[in-house]
Every structure is written in structure tokens, then in C-alpha cells.
Amino acid sequence: AVAMFEYGGPEVLKVMDIARPIPKPNEVLVKVHLSSITTADTMMRSGTPKFGRLFLGFPRPRKNIVGTGFAGTVVGLGEQ
Fold first, then answer.
1. How open is the CA angle 32-37-42, to the nearest 5 degrees?
2. Contact between residue 20 and residue 72 where contact means Cβ atoms under 8 Å apart
3. 41 in Cβ contact with 79 (< 8 Å)
4. Which of 7, 10, 27, 46 lies deepest, with the highest CB count within 10 Å?
5. Which residues of 52-61 are buried (b: 16+ CB within 10 A; e: fewer)?
6. Which residue spans within the chain are E strands per DSSP?
7. Contacts of 42 by beta carbon, 8 Å cutoff, 6+ apart
8. Model confidence pLDDT, tens digit, residues 6-18
């Protein structure tokens, strides 16, 4: 996974191994084959505009895994 633990430029991105997530009820687990990098991803990484941090986390991101667009295969289902 690619993660970030602070706002900033591309240098704050870290490639790391994470445990395989377990899908919660009404969720799916997707094995990601491709991921995009969008303007929104860049803005979330840098924490701009500053008012966006009210939703993303202040003073650092609440969610560490980055990425908003992807394509993949469903490999697991949570309880329904």
C-alpha cells in the first residue's frame, strides 16, 4: 500500500506492506490491479485548500492509505 502520515509533497508517500483487510458488513475487498493519481489525490496529500483538513484530519490525515480511483477484482465479501 502507499500511505502518508503527514501532509506535504510526494516525499511524504511511503510504500509499505499491510495486513490484508477483512471486509466489514456490506463491504467488498478488491485486489487492486491499477490505480490513478488525480488532482484530488494531490490536493488531499498536500492538505490544500486548508479548509479541506476539516474533513481529512487536522493536523495530519485521519486515513493513511492514499488513492481514490482504482480498478481491480473483487476477492472478498463482508456479511450481508
1. 130
2. no
3. no
4. 7
5. bbeeeeeeeb
6. 2-4, 13-15, 28-35, 70-77
7. none
8. 999 999 999 999 9
Distance, CA of 15 to CA of 34 (rounded, Å):
15
Cα 4 from Cα 13, distance rounded (Å): 5
Q: What average pLDDT does range 22-31 have in this prediction?
A: 95
pTM (predicted TM-score): 0.79
For residues 16 and 9, give the distance between their C-alpha atoms in angstroms, rounded to a whole number: 18
* CA–CA dist 19, 62 (Å, integer): 18
Distance CA 8, CA 45 (A): 6
Q: Which residue has the cell 493519481?
A: 37
Does 80 or 25 have the greater pLDDT score? Answer: 25
- How many residues are present in the chain? 80
